[in-house]
Automatic annotation (TrEMBL):
It comes from Bacteroides eggerthii. Coiled coil: none annotated. Residues 5-125 form the Cytidyltransferase-like domain. This is Gfo/Idh/MocA family oxidoreductase. Transmembrane segments: none annotated. Belongs to the Gfo/Idh/MocA family. GO terms for molecular function: nucleotide binding; nucleotidyltransferase activity; oxidoreductase activity. Residues 131-244 form the Gfo/Idh/MocA-like oxidoreductase N-terminal domain.
Length: 448
């Protein structure tokens, strides 16, 4: 049997894709099609928001040409796949001529003529207008956001608002934003969606106003710190057909998504323990993160990060949670949380005046996952076993600050009318808010 393999994004599947798949199929007896994952459309250098990987797989399957479909997850995978599947011919469009000559060492490389006059890029330009996005709050994170958004197709910042009008003007000047709004209603009139990057004490009211105005919302974490208010916002958004997404960037990183998939598939056995740490030393004591009136402190500022892998892998129903904190000037500068589930114990350490190693360790009955510091910017992790010969390392490219992946998911949800994201589910966000509410009410709290 002569095996052929080809790769592509297959976004907005069109006649050019179909022609290429047919030509590839004619080269042999068995065609393997690699579909690139959701994270990076390498052809254009931008994250793509039209069809997610499952939709693109279904489109390729519907052509009837593919005997097997695989997902391309990482750079260098083509060599691995060619050897793994004992491939005879690698086929790709002629617009890549010469690019993959290095694969001749492993199989025959064939460049197929592409269909002129049609491409996914052209179809996107015709079918997709940019989402007009408003930024509320012009602090440090909002500046990172503005630097990342050009790497995502489908939207642009068209208006900005901040209670400090001078700061809003400066932001608009720095990033060529055409409208500086003096009030929220003016901003809402000029946008279709908003990104909220204000102190978490203001999030609830801002999100509520945005939803009432019919605007999709991407809000920085912690989105809210009250379980019932979190539920209310998601219910309100769902009723109005609004996308509400929490901007917890780790949830949307390629490496994190793959890690969760591997662990859930049982590669380290049953998970019995998770340890996650996040810490930073703030030299400037006047920063917002250390101000109790602005929602400062470890749990509110950083708690969502370690709770993410815990809730992803263990679910959101825990039996009890104890907090051990060191308080200074009205905020926790250090907190350790210990959570008991029916079949596991999970813990997290947070520090803003205490420094600790920022690792993530997921322990199972067959092995464990080790993610080095800073694990929340995950681009590498290891699966480790008793027999070290079985250890495996995984590497992923992390582009920029990592915010582009959450922007990509936000735009994708809007375009495809998906009102919930599997990368960060509503019940997980609500559970995080519940943990913060427990801390606020000092339930099972011990001062150290």
């Amino acid at each position: 049997m002569k095996k052929v393999i080809t790769y592509g994004t297959y976004d907005l599947l069109h006649q050019g894709h179909i022609n290429l798949l047919r030509r590839a199929k004619e080269l042999g007896d068995y065609l393997i099609v690699g579909v690139t994952n959701d994270n990076f459309d390498r052809d254009r250098g931008k994250l793509n928001v039209r069809n997610n990987v499952l939709e693109r797989i279904e489109a390729v399957k519907a052509t009837g040409f593919a005997d097997q479909i695989i997902i391309e997850d990482y750079m260098g995978q083509k060599i691995d796949d060619i050897q793994k599947y004992d491939v005879d011919i690698f086929a790709i469009g002629s617009d890549w001529t010469g690019k993959f000559d290095y694969l001749n060492e492993y199989c025959k490389v064939v460049y197929l003529p592409r269909t002129e006059g049609i491409s996914s890029t052209m179809l996107r330009e015709v079918s997709q207008e940019d989402i007009k996005l408003g930024v509320i709050g012009c602090g440090r994170t909002a500046n990172k956001f503005a630097n990342e958004i050009p790497f995502v197709s489908g939207g642009k910042i068209t208006a900005v608002y901040d209670i400090d009008f001078d700061q809003a003007n400066q932001y608009a000047s720095n990033y060529n934003v055409p409208i500086v709004s003096c009030d929220l209603n003016n901003l809402f009139d000029n946008v279709e969606a908003v990104y909220i990057a204000t102190p978490n004490t203001s999030h609830y009211e801002l999100i509520k106003k945005a939803i009432d105005a019919g605007k999709h919302v991407l809000c920085e974490n912690a989105m809210v710190t009250n379980l019932q208010l979190s539920k209310d916002l998601f219910e309100k958004a769902e009723k109005k057909g609004i996308v509400l997404l929490e901007a917890l960037k780790t949830a949307y990183l390629p490496a994190f998504g793959h890690l969760i998939t591997l662990v859930k598939s049982g590669l380290i056995g049953e998970v019995v323990d998770i340890e996650a740490s996040v810490s930073t030393l703030k030299k400037d004591k006047q920063v917002r993160e250390l101000n109790p009136s602005m929602g400062g402190g470890c749990v509110y500022e950083m708690g969502s990060y370690p709770l993410l892998p815990i809730f992803k892998l263990m679910g959101t129903q825990y039996d009890n949670l104890n907090f051990y904190s060191r308080m200074e000037d009205g905020i926790d500068i250090y907190t350790r949380g210990v959570m008991h589930f029916s079949n596991a114990v999970c813990s997290f350490k947070l520090g803003m005046g205490v420094k600790t190693e920022g690792n993530l360790v997921i322990s199972g009955t067959k092995g464990y996952v080790y993610v080095p510091s800073p694990w929340w910017k995950m681009d590498y992790y290891e699966l480790r076993y008793e027999d070290q010969n079985e250890n495996k390392k995984y590497f992923y490219k992390l582009d920029g600050e990592g915010l582009r992946y959450e922007i990509h998911e936000f735009f994708s949800c809007i375009f495809n009318k998906r009102y919930s994201s599997v990368r960060l589910r509503k019940n997980e966000c609500v559970a995080m808010a519940g943990v913060m509410e427990q801390f606020k009410e000092k339930k099972n709290f011990f001062n150290i």
